[in-house]
Amino acid sequence: MPKSMYDEIFEPIEIGKVNVKNRAIFPPISTNFGKEDGHLSELFIRHYETRARGGVGLLIVENSCVSYPEGKHGAYEPRIDSWEFFNDWQKFAKRLKNYDSAISVELTHEGWKKRGVDFLSDEKIREIIESYGTAAEIACKAGFDMVEVQGAHGLLVNQFLSPLTNTREDSWGERTKFAIEIRKEIAKRCGWDFPVTIRLAVDDFLDGGITLEEGKRIADVLQDYYQMIQADIGLGPKELRLEPMPFQQAWRAYLAEKIRPLKVPVAAVGMIREPEVAVEIVRNKADMIVLGRTLIADPEWLIKVREGRVNEIRKCIGCSECIKARHDEDTRIRCGVNPQVGREIEIRRASARRRVVIVGGGPAGLEAARISAMRGHEVHLFYDEFGGALNLAKIPPGKEKIQWLIDYYRAELEKYGIEMHDKKALKGDVESLEPDVVILATGSKPFLPCPPLRNFVYLFDEVLRGDVKFEGKKIVVGGGGLVGCETANMLAESNEVIIVEMLPELAMGMETLSRRVLLRELEEKNVAMLTGTKIVDVGRREIIVERDGEQMLVEADALIAAFGSKPYIPFRIEGVPNYIIGDASSVRNIYSATKEGFEVAMRI
Ligand SMILES: Cc1cc2nc3c(=O)[nH]c(=O)nc-3n(C[C@H](O)[C@H](O)[C@H](O)COP(=O)(O)O)c2cc1C
Ligand code: SF4
Question: At what angle do helices 512-524 and 482-491 cross, to 10 degrees?
Answer without folding.
Answer: 30
